[in-house]
Write a structure and sequence with these properties.
alpha+beta; 3-stranded antiparallel sheet; 10 strands; 40% helix; elongated
């Protein structure tokens, strides 16, 4: 998107500004949490692709007022971004796999896939540090209402979590005292990627409503049926 915010951009037609602005908003929504590896060219062409939705809306309403056209074009484009994130990506990946074209996606790492996949809540998280200390959040759901709860999986591999139990080398596991203090509040523990040796996560499917959720669940069932052992891939 180099050059988009220079003075020449302000001289562009309002239709172009709407298409690019709405396209970029849809891109930001669709790729939240999984765009850190994108280069300028990736951002630019994905923005243009989403912006085509806004262009189509504007072309279909040549006699309507500008305010109405802009609002509808922006809303439609953002809606497409939401649908692409919630169901479109999974449908596209499933189609490529079914046609045996590719079993890979654009996710740069398994870690990025874990933090970006929707439809599952983390129920437990356990981290083994390089010095042998085991930190665990035994019931992540109970920490979900706390600030940044129940945990944050950073794009560079770091972790922010609520520690309910600690096990040091040669000692029994102990409950963390004062994790959620009535006076001082909840205590978050930050673990840089360099300090983590192993991370274990338990996740559970979350029932969701709406058409995108129905499509997502259908795709999940299809994947499980196609898996040799019937497990979720």
């Amino acid at each position: 998107m180099e050059g988009v915010l220079d003075a020449k951009w302000l001289l562009a037609t309002w239709q172009l500004q709407v298409a690019i602005g709405a396209g970029y908003a849809a891109y930001m929504i669709a790729y939240t949490g999984i765009r850190h590896h994108h280069q300028t060219i990736d951002t630019t062409f994905r923005t243009v692709a989403f912006g085509l939705v806004a262009t189509a809306v504007m072309l279909s309403m040549p006699n309507s007022g500008k305010v109405i056209v802009i609002a509808l074009a922006f809303a439609a484009t953002v809606a497409v971004g939401l649908v692409w994130r919630t169901a479109g990506m999974a449908i596209w990946e499933g189609l490529l796999r079914r046609l045996d074209i590719s079993w890979a996606d654009d996710t740069p790492s398994a870690w990025a896939k874990l933090s970006a996949e929707q439809g599952y809540h983390i129920t437990q998280i356990s981290v083994l540090t390089v010095d042998g200390i085991r930190l665990r959040c035994n019931d992540a759901a109970s920490c979900g209402s706390l600030p940044l709860g129940p945990c944050v999986l950073g794009t560079n591999g770091d972790v922010l979590m609520y520690v309910t139990h600690i096990k040091k080398p040669g000692e029994d596991e102990k409950e963390s005292v004062g994790m959620n203090d009535a006076h001082h509040g909840a205590k978050l523990t930050y673990l840089p990627a360099s300090s983590i040796k192993q991370l274990d996560v338990r996740r559970k499917a979350v029932p969701r409503r709406g058409i995108p959720s129905m499509i997502g669940r259908w795709i999940s069932r299809r994947r499980q049926a196609a898996s040799p052992d019937g497990s979720h891939s």
